[in-house]
Amino acid sequence: MDLCYDHLCAYMNSVSTMSRRSWIEDTFCKRACGKFIPACRDLHRCFPMCQVCQNLIRCCCGRLVGEHTLLETGPSMFSWPGPGTGQQEEWSVESHTQTSATDAYGTIDFQDSAGRNCHAKYVRVAVDAKAEALLQLMRSEWQMERPKLLLTVHGGTENFPLPLKVRQAFSKGLITAAQSTGAWILTDGINTGVSRYVGEAVKTYGTHDLRKRNAVGVTPWGVIDNHSDLIGRDVLRPYQPLGNPLSKRVCLNGLHSHFLLVDDGTLGKHGCQLGLRRKLERHIQLQKIHPRFNQGVPVVCVVVEGGLDIVSMVLEYVSSVPPRACVCLRGIRSGS
Question: Which of 26, 91, 133, 304 sits CB 3.0–4.6 Å from 37 for a disulfide?
């Protein structure tokens, strides 16, 4: 009898896993470039399968010819005009990338030098993913508690110094606000700049409970160092958040609890995540903080460092309807 019960439990767990896997793969996509359009307009007079093009010339998406896995079924990679033969076609995400079911989701096992392991849920999603589906993923699949406040943290993406007293005030204030209100924290999720300071705040003042950490990184898939290590369906993947100092790519911050890895089909290009992040913030703002009340989720923008792009972002937040509060720490650099 016990054996039959064990078999039934195993079967039900298997069905639940397959159902979850089916829903994620049916709902979320990845994007891949399907047509090679060279980023350099001054090309030599090449011939089909030219080794120079294969090894040196990059597509507008950031990849070499050999890195275009969809070219076998997509348009010809040698369809661009030669020198002096007319206008080159403009590459775009909508026209030159193709979607297919996501192939990267599960749990990241972060392993740092101190031997402290942290787990984080992750999924690779296309840049045009639906905000409703993302929220369903976060609430139903990842079991994140209903947010009563959304703290969206923006600022410098490069490493910058923050005075000790300011760093302590930021860290304690952010985590205290999050834990006392049941807030979610959104960042870029990378291991540099303001996202790293958020990770340090979680480490110093936060909880180890994955369900209560709720620090979500919204990160471009194409800029993550060794992102191919994360490919796999419903998997547990070990990940070292220590990147190559010579690389232009970035590492994920191991103290975040969840990651939405935004894929627009490009490699090494930042910024594609911002539109999806704002769309998700607006959708969360429409949710009720409690089923019995009609009040939506308040959104507060927290700014630490940054340049002129951050000034424009703050203006967008305070000009939105309804306007969103902004808290600026230590002012904003006016550099270009």
Answer: 91
Structure token pair of residue 282 = 């607006």
Q: For residue range 85-125, what is the model confidence (pLDDT) as tens digits?
A: 455 688 999 999 999 999 999 999 997 645 556 899 999 99
CA atoms of 336 and 333, how far apart (whole Å): 9
Beta-carbon contacts of 4 under 8 Å, excluding residues fewer than 6 positions away, are none
Per-residue pLDDT reduced to its tens digit, 271-292: 999 999 999 999 999 998 877 8
